[in-house]
Amino acid sequence: MRIYTKTGDRGETGLLGGGRVPKSHPRVEAYGEVDELNAVLGVALTFVADPAVRDRLESIQPDLFVIGAHLAAPEQQPGRRRPQLPDFPADRIATLEKWIDEGGAALPELRSFILPGGSAGGATLHLARTVCRRAERRVVALAAVDPVEPDIIIYLNRLSDLLFVLARLENHRAGHAEKEWHGTA
């Protein structure tokens, strides 16, 4: 199988279930950002030392593939069949909330904003958090023009919170003190 198909050479791409849209379409932006988030999590996995954090990240990556598939498949159009998609793991939102609570309980209380950074794993998780927030914004923008399952937006919102907690947890367990931000001097 060749990687290049030449079908996108004019700035369009195919959607799951048929149809073509410009590569700048909000739907492509949304699933592209989720794909980027998944790639950043893959990078984070090369740096994260804590096994519990690694396990959580590894279980999130397949969720993001499912979300990407749902975003790449618009609502059924006349004359086209919507493809069979993997079930969206809406029950995972509760799991993310549980992990946020568990991680938060193991961390010192936040008393101010903290600067992203710390260990390589912690800093990469902070980066993943910002990519997740951007993906969420792109999905919200898509939802303004096309239907999007509401649980996808909720999942991404919780995931960004979890990535913040996991970054702090990774730094805490690696012995990297958080640098607080107190405004300008």
How would you explain this protein's 3D organization?
This protein has 185 residues and is mainly alpha-helical. It has a single domain, classed as Up-down Bundle (Hypothetical Protein Ta1238, Chain: A), CATH 1.20.1200.10. It has 5 helices and 4 strands. It has helices at 26-47, 51-72, 92-105, 120-143, 150-173, and strands spanning 12-14, 20-22, 113-114, 180-181. Strands 1-2 form a two-stranded antiparallel sheet. A two-stranded antiparallel ribbon has the order 3-4. α3 (92-105) runs parallel beside α5 (150-173). It is elongated. The mean pLDDT is 88.
Which terms would index this structure?
mainly alpha; 185 residues; two-stranded antiparallel sheet; two-stranded antiparallel ribbon; 57% helix; Hypothetical Protein Ta1238, Chain: A
Write a brief caption for the model.
The chain is mainly alpha-helical. It is 57% helix and 5% strand. The chain contains 5 helices and 4 strands, in the order ββαααβααβ.
Question: How would you summarize the topology of this molecule?
Answer:
Blueprint: E1 12-14, E2 20-22, H1 26-47, H2 51-72, H3 92-105, E3 113-114, H4 120-143, H5 150-173, E4 180-181
Antiparallel strand pairs: 1-2, 3-4
